[in-house]
Amino acid sequence: MINRAFLLLMALYVSDGRCGVSVVGTRFMIDDKMQHLNIKLVNDNESDYLIKSTLDDKDFIISPPLFLLKKNSSDMITVIPKENKGQGKDKTINFTVTSIPKSTANDSINSVAMAVRSHFKIIYRHKTLEKASLDKIIIIRENNKCQLFNPSDFSFTVSVHNKNKTSDSRVINITPGEKVSLDGAGLAPSCGGWIKFYNEFNDVIYTAKSPEVQ
């Protein structure tokens, strides 16, 4: 007797388009004045999908954590702060969406249900961002390597370039007090470079030049 078998393949950082379910947005922002954040999911496939979503921060809840997204439809996931935290700095929350397609196999046929896990960042903004905080982000040289240093109380999404018009550098998420290695950014040993800041829609909102390190 052949039993129906289901193999769940959890793939990290796989494009949502492969599984028929897409999340509208690449990163998200919620501030201390917002009571909730809505995140839209779209299923443009001819199959229903079971959607499971999780957060790695217990100060926030997600609703619904598990639901069926019907074929050719859309729905919302809502992120809700448990209370006003009154924190002194930003935090970055890891948001994970797992999409599992509905199986159409019968009992006499083995089948594979491909589950795709996608990862996103949610930034909790503890207060209004000011230009002075953007200007605090600098490139330093430490242990003979160039590093991006964030001494501010804010989280940022940035890219670093050796020239202002360069557009092929990787995007970096940097949290308060964090240092990130800039290996591969093509910077000179002096570590001078341009820092571009992005909002949650991937628009460049500010560009700053970090001075060379003497």
Describe this structure in words.
- The structure is a single chain.
- With 214 residues, this protein is mainly beta.
- The protein folds into two domains: 16-125, Immunoglobulin-like, CATH 2.60.40; 131-210, Immunoglobulin-like (Sandwich), CATH 2.60.40.
- Helix content is 2%, strand content 45%.
- A five-stranded mixed beta sheet has the order 2-9-8-4-6, with no helix packed on it. The chain has a four-stranded antiparallel beta sheet with strand order 1-3-7-5, with no helix packed on it. The protein has a four-stranded antiparallel beta sheet with strand order 13-12-15-16, with no helix packed on it.
- A hairpin with a 2-residue loop joins strand 10 (138-142) and strand 11.
- It is globular, with a radius of gyration of 21 Å.
- The termini are far apart.
Q: Regarding CATH, which class of the largest domain?
A: Mainly Beta
- Averaged pLDDT, please? 83
Annotated CATH topology of the largest domain: Immunoglobulin-like
Q: Which value, in Å, is the CA radius of gyration?
A: 21 Å
CATH-defined architecture of the largest domain? Sandwich
Apparent shape: globular
> Roughly what fraction of the amino acids lie in strands?
35-45%
Assembly category: single chain
The N- and C-terminal alpha carbons lie at a distance of 74 Å
Count the E strands. Answer: 16
